[in-house]
Amino acid sequence: MVGRSGRRPGNQDTREAILAAARSAFAERGMDGATIRVIAAGAGVDPALVHHYFGTKDQLFLAAMRAPIDPLTIIPLVLAGGLDGIGERLVRMLLSVWDSPAGEAAVAVLRSAFSNDDIAAMMREFIVNRILKQVVKGLGLDPVEGLLRASLVGSQIAGVITFRYIIKVEPMASAPVETLVARIGPTIETYLKG
């Protein structure tokens, strides 16, 4: 009799223990302070097992947040054309993600951040250090002024997401994507260009 090939199924209890330890460590220590060793110790497992289940620390963070997509894969696509037209590219990209099946999971993550301090701390850390700073660097903006500009963009996007997907305020909730792209995109571009 020939055995099955491939990776053996993981132990769900071990996986959940790692995720719980990761959520606690990320909330308490931030993204940089929460090392794989700290997370492994909190879960009572070897650090190699954390890597086995989740790969990198960024992938573990996304799993701990239950993030439906990796924003770091989207950033280069939005930044590719430089500052000209960036607002429209960003709005179009975000709305396409939020209108997709991944959007339902994203709504759940966002709602969790509104009601859970640990999730909010993790999300804040990730947004600032893994998204906003990458945008600032990718556009070649001054680190201090650029972070303020990127934060303004984030506040605009958070408002759109909240109105369209969380509390579903009409007519924004049902407006065509291209209408929102045309109306919101220039404002976002203004924030980034200054």
Helix- and strand-based class? mainly alpha
* CATH architecture label name of the largest domain: Orthogonal Bundle
Radius of gyration: 19 Å
Please indicate the percent range of residues in DSSP E strands (runs of 2 or more): under 5%
The number of helical runs is 10
Q: Choose one word for the global shape.
A: globular
What does this structure look like?
The chain has ten helices and no strands. The chain has 194 residues and is mainly alpha-helical. Helix 1 (12-33) packs across helix 4, helix 1 (12-33) crosses helix 8 and helix 9 runs antiparallel to helix 10 (177-193). The longest helix is centred in the C-terminal third of the chain and has 24 residues, at 143-166. The termini are far apart. Residues 1-9 have low confidence and may be disordered.
Brief write-up:
With 194 residues, the protein is an all-alpha fold. The chain is 76% helix and 0% strand. Helix 5 runs parallel beside helix 8 (117-139).
In terms of topology, how is this protein built?
Layout: H1 12-33, H2 36-43, H3 47-54, H4 57-65, H5 71-79, H6 86-98, H7 101-115, H8 117-139, H9 143-166, H10 177-193
Helix pairs in contact: 1-2, 1-4, 1-8, 2-3, 3-4, 5-6, 5-8, 6-10, 7-8, 8-9, 9-10
